[in-house]
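Note to self: keep these together.
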Amino acid sequence: MIRIGVDFGGTKIEAAALAPDGRVVVRRRTASPPHYEAGVAAVRELVAEVEREAGVAGAPVGVGGPGSPSPADGRMRDANSTHLNGRPFQADLERALGRPIRLANDANCLALSEAVDGAAAGARVVFAAILGTGVGGGLIVDGALVEGRNAFAGEWGHIPLPWPRPDEYPGPLCWCGRRSCLELWVSGPGLARDHGAGLTAEAVVNAARGGDAAAAAALDRYIDRLSRGFAVVCDLVDPDVIVLGGGMSNVELLYERLPAAIAPHVFSDVFATPVRRALHGDSSGVRGAARLWPLAGGT
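Structure:
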């Protein structure tokens, strides 16, 4: 059975057809339109193109994106692509595609993909974090996605920065209305803002690699803040593996330094949890979205 996954991001929308053995049969992407209705139409067109090229029709469709639908009325909430908030996104996609769909947070899709056959395959408890334009998290326990009673489990990007230092308090105001959300500190734009010289996060990382002292100091602060954020997760669920996705997951230094940086902050005398890059990279979103529809007797 072919399943189709859609990764609805802030800059791109990607759709892929996933074979039962996990192979991506067809993958297509387009730029994300700035308006809600155009985004729904783009998903419809991408799914039709992928189905046509894969030679299937009416395949199950799973969609991963920012935020989550409210269990109260199905309308979107907590999306950093704020034009989605308050919209009946799932219902509108189902109407456009002419079938039921499954919709989940993009970090949940990352976690599901990597727990099934990625960097955390075989692990019992997996926490996956997207470190990109925004920051999110997803939790897998015994192969199942944990969304919680109110369907917002894993919204790690909107806890306040743990153990703030005097120069970090009270912290900047977040788009969500709260102050000092972790997303503001450990996203790509958070690193760029902290560096303060108008460089992108990628440019800051490259400058740090080249020996620039100010960039290296900004990256040190970034790793320290990220370690504090992960320590809170570890105190709550003590994952077997932490998996990173998003643009900042390409910074190799994170895998070398994060475990030792997390250790002093956890409430334990032992910390041996590995931090790994997502095996499927930016394909994890569509793979996990497709797997929101499990195969009979399988994943």
